[in-house]
Predict the 3D structure of the following.
Amino acid sequence: MEQTPPPRPGRHARRSPLRRWWPALLLLLLVVLVATVWTLTRPGAPADRIAEVAAPSESASAAVPGSAPTPSLSVAPSASPSRKPSPAASTTTGGGAGRRSAKKGVSVWEFSGLGAALKDVGASWYYNWASGPTRGAGNSAAFVPMIWGANSVNDGELARAKANGRELLGFNEPDFASQSNMSVERALELWPRLQATGLRLGSPAVAVGADRPGGWLDRFLSGARDRGYRVDFIALHWYGSDFSPAAVDQLRGYLQAVWNRYHKPIWLTEYALIKWGANGAVFPTDAQQASFATRSTAMLQSLSYVERYAWFALPTPKEGNQGTGLYRPGALATAAGRAYRAAG
């Protein structure tokens, strides 16, 4: 018996009741789809649902090697993953990266990038062998004035020092002819003028022999005591000619001997490794100077009778020799500068 083939779509629709209703069914499905989409995207729809539709999940993107999670739409547009500083950031300056300590200071003179270097190294204080602050130093470190020598003992310099500090450093290396070059008697004669400022007063800073009985400092302190003069702390300098690790213990021994003799707080206002010779100064390698900076500062921090210390010096010499300087022009740290920056 010959079978009749099924009708093709669109023809003979009247032959089946179901076929009469298929347009209505199609319309119903379309209405349901539109309603579903409107529900998901209407204003006020849950943010996590919008994110689920609009963005891949964190787990999905994490499965792709080298990919990073894509933030969902519920995260504020300004949010971003935290970033670690690049390695280069530790060798550039100006970010205030240095560890600070009330003890830690530097001696300075004017150079390009002074303010940035002072902030970067983390110095709490500085001095410049003068009664007023250095131009461009900024305010990240406190200034400590000095009355350098006999010619600085006048009303103008003393008033300037009083206006710019809370402590006052006395004469600079009076025991050296190339520096303030003063006799003990002359220093004692002028001392009441410094005392009259009312500032906390440091002794003249001798270059050598601060621990020596009968030395310049010993005779000055004896004379001041006999006259009833005030000396609130002892300032002194030290330069090591031994570039080995033993230099730290040599410095410690010197400071301990000064403390044992006078029992006054100590400010080490110049120090570094330099070997003085007939042909000029000889310096250690960068690595030796940096190692000394690291180890000496740790030692100085540990001594309760050392109130402050100041490396010589913050800038490198103008002649171009790095010497003992911590920063080159433009506030670029040397190896010793990076070590001193981490100290405190």
Q: What stands out?
A: Confidence is low (pLDDT under 50) at residues 1-21, 36-96. The first helix runs from residue 17 to 41. The chain has two domains: 17-62, 98-341. The chain is about 35% helix and 15% strand.
